[in-house]
Amino acid sequence: xxxxxxxxxxxxxxxxxxxxxxxxxxxxxxxxxxxxxxxxxxxxxxxxxxxxxxxxxxxxxxxxxxxxxxxxxxxxxxxxxxxxxxxxxxxxxxxxxxxxxxxxxxxxxxxxxxxxxxxxxxxxxxxxxxxxxxxxxxxxxxxxxxxxxxxxxxxxxxxxxxxxxxxxxxxxxxxxxxxxxxxxxxxxxxxxxxxxxxxxxxxxxxxxxxxxxxxxxxxxxxxxxxxxxxxxxxxxxxxxxxxxxxxxxxxxxxxxxxxxxxxxxxxxxxxxxxxxxxxxxxxxxxxxxxxxxxxxxxxxxxxxxxxxxxxxxxxxxxxxxxxxxxxxxxxxxxxxxxxxxxxxxxxxxxxxxxxxxxxxxxxxxxxxxxxxxxxxxxxxxxxxxxxxxxxx
Length: 392
Ligand code: PLP
Prior knowledge:
The protein has 13 helices and 16 strands. The protein is α/β, with parallel strands linked by helices. The strands form 4 sheets. A 7-stranded mixed beta sheet has the order 4-12-11-10-7-5-6, with helices on both faces. A 4-stranded mixed beta sheet has the order 1-2-3-15. α3 packs antiparallel against α10 (285-298), α8 runs parallel beside α9 (202-215) and α11 (301-319) runs parallel beside α13. The protein starts with a helix and ends with a helix. The structure holds pyridoxal-5'-phosphate. Residues 48, 104-106, 109, 137-139, 189, 193-194, 222, 224-225, 250 line the site of pyridoxal-5'-phosphate (PLP).
């Protein structure tokens, strides 16, 4: 189908919530995408940090096809080895407690919000509060939206669930002041993705950990975007001075299929009782098989060391581009701010026309989230294209 026909279909039938570039990708392999005209693109977006193992990784394809041919799903009212193996793998690779499987980042946020609220009620807190950071992003469902202060428009979507307080992302004193006897949790992304790849400072993370410990609140890290190897360790917190009590994962966890998870410490793993939470599709064998295959690819010390090394190479290449005023991030989660007068959206469009897919999460900057399986050749090619594309 021609792009004009797709645009007409979208205009007539798709509720218009996305600004789409005029391209249809129809095939992928590793770090490469092909459009419907057969043009090849280097993908430095990976479906917003979903295809961390590269497009159509043969092990993930085999796991999905193999499980689809056996049993796509049954029900959480029965046992399923892929789901339980996935819970085991997630718990043993991080917080050592228990896991709830769902289908997206927003669902993982909802689950953890319920969990920390129930935990707070058990501690005698009648109206529990969750402290978040004001530039954070946790999803678009109502609870997750209430935790996402920038988008939580009461005038458009209200009434929103109460019990959320946002503090500035770089103000440890404000965070300490916001955490008190009613606090159920502090919930944050250790590197804020949608805000423009903004690492939260160690000082802020330590303040959050100490404030939670002082009142018995739960520290939740949203690793939906920055987890699954993106920063060069399986979980972002592994490179940070503090450890959370619960983490959320999604995006790359499913290897391209919709999978989300909440992973807890052993203590928090006992908070929910039967019937407290559920999901029809959560942990379906086909999705769990894909996630196990994705974890097998990504949780590989050699690949993760490569992510750290390539990240450094990429960041120093970007920093040398004229007009780049700041490069930030960790591993292959990278943001680049441009000098005033350089139009980031035009640079992204220029890069796309030169065969490089990048993203503009907010004005004045570009975000890069390539598959973690790229090599130096791809990194250098992206830097070369961006050097030309930012000359606008
Ligand atoms: N949390 C973070 C940090 C995210 O970046 C996102 C999505 O971009 C979400 C939660 C929501 O995930 P989903 O779109 O799968 O609901």
